[in-house]
Recover the amino acids of this structure.
């Protein structure tokens, strides 16, 4: 696994996405909502996504293990990076979920201690840190 300084917690927040649907698909969703199968369009879409994720759950678990991904929330603090720097090691951040780099992390510290960033989900970091790690982000 990657260098995880503390246990992972499941992410509680969500990320907003935008999708384009054909009018017929959208009409079918609205029909199912009107008939009471779902409370709204979002409820339908979340349910559909969860069903597909569950349908492929075993393949996803194998992929998480194969890729050595941290699952859930991984927060990287300034102290974590300073400790890695003191030990002379680079962190490889590989997360399925949410990776967040603390707001007080400088671009220089991030470049000195983060070797690579691969996030399937969302990465929260300051614009300056994102720019500093752009060439290390997959």
């Amino acid at each position: 696994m990657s260098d995880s300084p503390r246990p992972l917690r499941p992410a509680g927040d969500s990320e907003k996405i935008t999708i384009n649907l054909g009018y017929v698909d959208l009409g079918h969703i609205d029909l199912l909502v009107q008939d009471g199968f779902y409370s709204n369009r979002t409820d339908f879409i979340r349910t559909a996504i969860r069903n597909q994720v569950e349908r492929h759950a075993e393949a996803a678990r194998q992929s998480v293990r194969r890729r050595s991904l941290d699952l859930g929330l991984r927060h990287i603090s300034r102290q974590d990076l300073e400790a890695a720097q003191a030990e002379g090691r680079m962190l490889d951040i590989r997360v399925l979920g949410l990776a967040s780099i603390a707001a007080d992390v400088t671009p220089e510290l991030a470049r000195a201690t983060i070797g690579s960033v691969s996030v399937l989900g969302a990465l929260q970091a300051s614009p300056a840190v994102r720019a500093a790690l752009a060439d290390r982000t997959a």
Q: What stands out?
A: Confidence is low (pLDDT under 50) at residues 1-11. Residues 65-136 form one domain. Residues 38 and 47 are 9 Å apart (CA to CA). The longest strand covers residues 91-101.
